[in-house]
Design a protein that fits this description.
about 240 residues; 10 strands; 9 helices
Length: about 240
């Protein structure tokens, strides 16, 4: 059984239909990237998948006792309230100092346990959120544009870290990102979403799909060809109007 599977999922807000007819699945060990323009329903779909939002149509199946680690697109911190990194993780359900130290070591900020959250750089803050997501040793890591606002070196370092965590935990990774040239080339499968699934397949196949190129431009195919993934031959392309 897949870790997560959606069947004809749709979402409506009032009279507006945000998502329609989405069939999707992800298996253990897979890295799947969801791309799409702003307002295409990517974050909404993630919330439906993890159970934070109920679909208006269709259903989502999750593997029994599925452990989900979620890194949100953004998290607001009260800058008037002092809070160290270790305290933040403790509030998230981890009061074991040894385990906290192991997690911070895993995400590369072992020396930041006593640093105030408000004093962290953008990259360090996202690593803390990743540590929080790893608390339950998840079966699947779900990340909603986790590198938004980071500079290119920090983006590259964060994605390397995600890959290391995937290998260590043997978990799946489901990622929403605008870093197309970096993320898509590291993905097993790409889903292009714009209210519905426009196209789906390997990075190379999706980058050549008319629906993808209509959304993101004709120059993306050449850029993504530089990052050809070793699984490109495994997944057929599916394209929808």
């Amino acid at each position: 059984m897949s870790l997560m599977r959606s069947h004809e999922v749709g979402v409506r807000y009032g009279g507006s239909r945000i998502l329609r007819d989405i069939n999707f699945s992800i298996d253990r060990g897979e890295i799947v990237t969801i791309v799409g323009p702003n307002g295409s329903g990517k974050s909404t779909f993630l919330r439906v998948l993890i159970g934070a939002q109920t679909p208006s149509e269709g259903r989502v199946e999750r593997a029994p006792a599925l452990r989900i680690g979620y890194v949100p697109q953004r998290l607001s911190i009260d800058y008037t309230m002092p809070m160290t990194v270790a305290r933040f993780l403790a509030l998230s359900g981890n009061s074991d100092r040894t385990q906290t130290a192991v997690l911070l070591q895993r995400v590369g900020i072992a020396d930041r346990a006593n640093r105030q959250m408000i004093d962290l750089s953008g990259g360090e803050f996202q690593r803390v959120l990743l540590a929080q997501a790893l608390l339950r040793e998840p079966d699947i890591l779900v990340l909603d544009e986790p590198t938004q606002g980071l500079d290119p070196p920090a983006v590259a370092a964060f994605y390397r870290l995600i890959e290391e965590c995937r290998q260590e935990l043997e978990c799946a990774v489901l990622l929403v990102s605008h870093d197309l040239h970096v993320v898509m080339g590291q993905s097993d499968r790409v889903v292009c979403l714009n209210g519905h699934v426009c196209c789906e397949g390997t990075p190379t196949a999706v980058s050549a799909a008319p629906a993808y190129r209509a959304l993101f431009g004709l120059d993306t195919e050449d850029a993504l060809a530089l990052y050809r993934h070793h699984h490109d031959h495994l997944h057929p392309i599916e394209s929808n109007p």
